[in-house]
Amino acid sequence: MKGLVKGLVKRLVKGLVKRLVAVVAVLLLAGVMPAAAADEQVVIAEGHVDMGPRFVDGRWTIQIRDDRADPEVWRSIEDVVLQAGAKSQVPVPADPAYAFLGEPGRKVYILPQVEQAGIVWPGWNTQDTEVATKVDREVTWTLNDVQGPGGFTLFLNSDFGKPQPVFDAAKPFPQETGIDINTHVHGNWTFAAEGTYLLDITMAAKLTDGTSVSDRRWLRLYAGEADPRAAFAVQPVTAAPAPAPAASSGGSRAMVWFVAGGIVVVVLAVLVVWRRAARSSR
User: Taking the complete model, does pTM exceed 0.85, yes or no?
Assistant: First the structure.
């Protein structure tokens, strides 16, 4: 009987050790190894970037995906300035359909809908895995305000070449547009004068479980060839509600080690019982 007990305890210990290794591995991958992220301030003047909502440690957050690196890097929107440099200047077309951009022939800065070398190519997407699976149908993108030295517009070129306005700072705020889930879009971002532009934006959605999520932040852009990093110091005249800080991974790391520690305690307790059983069988 004692030998039977000893064998059972031994098998139990081996099983617990295997489960401990598996559980800790899964927890480490899920909670301690998040997608690549960065928190340094950067000016992006060329290459592909996207703005969109993500679930960061379970919290709905607007971020910038920087595709200039491989793999891509997700950045806090407050740490990024998108620059429209001299290469992005174009004259306003004589076509009356573009009258919203100003006088024909007058130069404006434009970050174009179609990728061009030497110019940043900003888009927006709802392709984050959790966003695509948890959001009910679409994300609502709201432009609450624009602060800058000149006019700002965001428009799309249709299949027939005609502009389709998305946002226009000359019109009353707030302005809204819907973004279907699992969508990736590019448009034409225009700036009428040189300087820093602050876009007060909100991205919100209703989830399939019936709850609602929302995040509101400032997107910074700079048009011109002066030092674009100065845009980081520009503060909005009327501040949007301060966004809740993204949850750090410290809490999830603590939970990982708490759970792992608990399993270790259980294993050690079983080992003590095993040793006592072994001694008593001698």
Answer: no
